Amino acid sequence: MDDSKSVPATFVGSARVGDYFALLKPRVMSLVIVTAVVGLLLSPSTLNPVLAAIALLCISIGAGGSGALNMWYDSDIDAVMSRTRNRPIPSGRVDRNDALAIGLIASAFSVMTLGLATNWLAAGLLAFTIFFYAVIYSMWLKRSTPQNIVIGGAAGAFPPMVAWAAATGTISLESVALFLIIFMWTPPHFWALALYKQGDYQEAGIPMMPNVAGEQSTKLQILVYSVLLVASTLIPSFIGFSHLPYTAVAAATGVWFVVLAWQLYRRTGVEMKKAGRKLFTYSLYYLLVIFLALLGDHYLAQFGGF
């Protein structure tokens, strides 16, 4: 094994179930589940409830598998970053080889099961998502370019499209619109985090935008992407995929997103870090609200007749 990937082994063997579960990145998995559920429920085809549950489970396990592969590969840099050094591998609670095995098994199981239970288009999309996150993003983009989050954000944007494909066997304009919302959300979300955690990224040698292009350029790009994000959330309204209730929620929450991005753009020093944390926190709830608003709008239209 490459010495650059070695981690403390003092406590290896003392792992608990929770440590292995942490390898799957449950917080990321929860976001994947929400967006996949929305993609599944918004699709024009009704999937058998048992198959729908299997599809969501496979998407979740696939996301967890890619998370484990990410932790396996990034264990060296996780060990030097304050927000990640207590993860199971750098803390020494889980062996890297165990994480690799879990990641590979979970990934293969999720793809094969999804293909057998629904269709192979959905399975292929899930396989590509796992490959994109574990290989394209984790092994290549993350350590080589400040555009890592922009390009790598595609991995986190695929779950609703995978769920849509599981239900319909197709890729449609509506599922692409769901993909685009998450894709545009990713840069301002993670760059806001990078602004107040740039010391960590600097120490780990990760070329995040603030460390490469500087704070002012990063803040400007956050503002630009925030505007693009809000525009993308209005696409469902223009393609007949949503109605007035969703449009009102998207517009109101989007305006505040841009306001927070503007405040961040104007701040420097300690105030900038506070503004970055504020935008990062808001962005977490923002994406959840947008997707739940889409779902609520769908059922209001279905049962309310507007």
TrEMBL record:
<keyword id="KW-1003">Cell membrane</keyword>
<keyword id="KW-0808">Transferase</keyword>
<keyword id="KW-1133">Transmembrane helix</keyword>
<feature type="transmembrane region" description="Helical">
    <location>
        <begin position="177"/>
        <end position="196"/>
    </location>
</feature>
<feature type="transmembrane region" description="Helical">
    <location>
        <begin position="120"/>
        <end position="137"/>
    </location>
</feature>
<protein>
    <recommendedName>
        <fullName>Protoheme IX farnesyltransferase</fullName>
        <ecNumber>2.5.1.141</ecNumber>
    </recommendedName>
</protein>
<feature type="transmembrane region" description="Helical">
    <location>
        <begin position="284"/>
        <end position="301"/>
    </location>
</feature>
<feature type="transmembrane region" description="Helical">
    <location>
        <begin position="28"/>
        <end position="44"/>
    </location>
</feature>
<feature type="transmembrane region" description="Helical">
    <location>
        <begin position="50"/>
        <end position="73"/>
    </location>
</feature>
<dbReference type="InterPro" id="IPR000537">
    <property type="entry name" value="UbiA_prenyltransferase"/>
</dbReference>
<feature type="transmembrane region" description="Helical">
    <location>
        <begin position="149"/>
        <end position="171"/>
    </location>
</feature>
<dbReference type="GO" id="GO:0008495">
    <property type="term" value="F:protoheme IX farnesyltransferase activity"/>
</dbReference>
<feature type="transmembrane region" description="Helical">
    <location>
        <begin position="245"/>
        <end position="264"/>
    </location>
</feature>
<comment type="similarity">
    <text>Belongs to the UbiA prenyltransferase family. Protoheme IX farnesyltransferase subfamily.</text>
</comment>
<dbReference type="GO" id="GO:0005886">
    <property type="term" value="C:plasma membrane"/>
</dbReference>
<dbReference type="InterPro" id="IPR030470">
    <property type="entry name" value="UbiA_prenylTrfase_CS"/>
</dbReference>
<keyword id="KW-0812">Transmembrane</keyword>
<keyword id="KW-0350">Heme biosynthesis</keyword>
<comment type="pathway">
    <text>Porphyrin-containing compound metabolism; heme O biosynthesis; heme O from protoheme: step 1/1.</text>
</comment>
<keyword id="KW-0472">Membrane</keyword>
<dbReference type="InterPro" id="IPR044878">
    <property type="entry name" value="UbiA_sf"/>
</dbReference>
<feature type="transmembrane region" description="Helical">
    <location>
        <begin position="217"/>
        <end position="239"/>
    </location>
</feature>
<dbReference type="GO" id="GO:0048034">
    <property type="term" value="P:heme O biosynthetic process"/>
</dbReference>
<dbReference type="InterPro" id="IPR006369">
    <property type="entry name" value="Protohaem_IX_farnesylTrfase"/>
</dbReference>
<dbReference type="Pfam" id="PF01040">
    <property type="entry name" value="UbiA"/>
</dbReference>
<comment type="function">
    <text>Converts heme B (protoheme IX) to heme O by substitution of the vinyl group on carbon 2 of heme B porphyrin ring with a hydroxyethyl farnesyl side group.</text>
</comment>
